[in-house]
Amino acid sequence: MTWLIEEGIAERRALLVEGERVLASRVIWPGELAAGHRVTGQLTAKLKGTRRGVALLESGTEALVDHLPPQVTEGQTLDLVITRAALAERGRLKRAQARLAGSGGPSTDPAWPEGRIVRRFPAGLWEEVWHAASSASLDFAGGEVLVSVTPAMTVIDIDGIGSPREVALAAIPAIARALAWFDCGGNIGIDFPTLAAKEDRRAVDEALAAALAGWPHERTAINGFGFVQLVARLTGPSLQHRFATARLGMAARMALRRAELAADAGTGRVLQLTVHPALKPKLKPLWLEELARRSAREVRIAVDPALAIEAAHAQLLGA
Hints:
Layout: E1 2-8, E2 11-18, E3 21-28, E4 38-46, E5 53-57, E6 62-66, E7 77-84, E8 87-89, E9 92-94, E10 96-100, E11 116-118, H1 125-135, E12 137-140, E13 143-149, E14 154-160, H2 164-181, E15 186-191, H3 198-211, E16 218-219, E17 227-232, H4 239-245, H5 247-265, E18 270-275, H6 285-295, E19 298-303, E20 313-317
Helix pairs in contact: 2-3, 4-5, 5-6
């Protein structure tokens, strides 16, 4: 197993691969504070009755600070380590979470994996993960799992043909793949088909435990309604969080990647990127300048209202 890292325009991507299979993925965008980053912040408020407070970071953003010692006072400058990146949700932004550097607790290792930087991932691997995350679904024999993000938890629903036991067992490999591919964490609920027999529930519990053996988490047993709750360390936005709150941003970055691939594959002095009109304002001038530099070509942006947001395409032109 090897982590491959691709330095994209406005996006750093990582895939854990084994042979030609993707086992997991990670994404970070420039300027984001990832878990493990060390920062300096001024404590602006201590929350009464708790050991928590709010710190204003050097970047101008705020973070919630946990496990504050009693002697720390408002106005004090603190050395902090980020434990969870900020999370955008519909209508609100959850502040990043932090604690004092050197105060113990969860691992301070950055959430970003160590790996081998490559110019491009092997053909099709990132596309497979990206399209699965974009559609919020993964197929399995006889059905699909559907992944939805809510303010309370990530919910995985199962739709398939067959007896409840057959469908539940067939879905488990796809569930395990979705959790790793989409970099899920926090509270996660899995809604299996209702399994009335204890024997069936036991079989599903055992199969799920085996499938998630290498994924750190805690888990409830499946109940009579087919529901299982997982809790895993949440260090930042999953791919599902990003698509739920920044679909245009995800699509814009994918459009730039397609343009880079087109530039790699042919000849022509002009690189034309055709996008849905809603996507054009998301293509920042600095990103397009970087695309022109990397491709060594003039970059032109065309719009086509008939294109889906996710279906940008690029081509090389002679002039």
